[in-house]
Amino acid sequence: MTASRLSFTLAVLIAIAGMTWGIAMAISHDHSTLPAHAHLNLLGWVSLFLMGLYYRGHTDLDGSRIALLQVVVWAAASVAMVAGVGLIYSGAPQAEPLAAISSLVLLADMLLFAWLVIRAAR
Ligand code: HEM
């Protein structure tokens, strides 16, 4: 499994989930979880697909374990953060540590991605 293939696969699955969530919000007229829906789509669909495009264009990185790890961590932390944000906006503030820790993991994983990108550009 390459990093790009995993990114593309997870991104389209997350897009389906995010769009279904949006339709459910629209039908129910309850938009209270819109921050979680927006983050699921922007982290899990848009960002992950863009990362996949980057890896697809850098074949030396695409087959590496570090790129695969970066994608796995990004996808898992995105889902965890969205779950935390969704719970907070559904009236469960005790989910704040989940949102906080997963957001820090996302930042660390973006630093890893930035390092891979900058290193390849030099
Ligand atoms: C079937 C597809 C989708 C439906 C039915 C849908 C539905 C919705 C609804 C009902 C809201 C709440 C609007 C509000 O209360 O102001 C919303 C917000 C939002 N959605 Fe979606 N959505 C869909 C797909 C997407 C996708 C693919 C993305 C990103 C790539 C996205 C990003 C956002 C963002 C950023 C917001 C927050 C907008 C704001 O705060 O003004 N949505 N969506």
Description:
With 122 residues, the protein is an all-alpha fold. It has one domain. The protein is 86% helix and 0% strand. It has helices spanning 3-28, 34-57, 59-62, 65-89, 96-121. Helix 1 runs antiparallel to helix 2 (34-57) and helix 2 packs antiparallel against helix 4 (65-89). The longest helix is centred in the N-terminal third of the chain and has 26 residues, at 3-28. It is globular and about 50 Å long. The two termini are 26 Å apart. The mean pLDDT is 97. Protoporphyrin IX containing FE binds next to helix 1 and helix 2.
In short:
Helices cover 86% and strands 0% of the residues.
What is the molecular shape? Answer: globular
**Average pLDDT rating:** 97
Uncertain segments of ≥5 residues (pLDDT<50)?
none
**Helix percentage range:** over 70%
Over all CA atoms, what is the radius of gyration? 15 Å
List the helices and strands and how they pair.
Elements: H1 3-28, H2 34-57, H3 59-62, H4 65-89, H5 96-121
Bound molecules: protoporphyrin IX containing FE.
Protoporphyrin IX containing FE is lined by residues 18-19, 22-23, 25-26, 31, 34, 37-38, 41-42, 45-46.
What keyword list fits this structure?
single chain; mainly alpha; 122 residues; binds protoporphyrin IX containing FE; globular
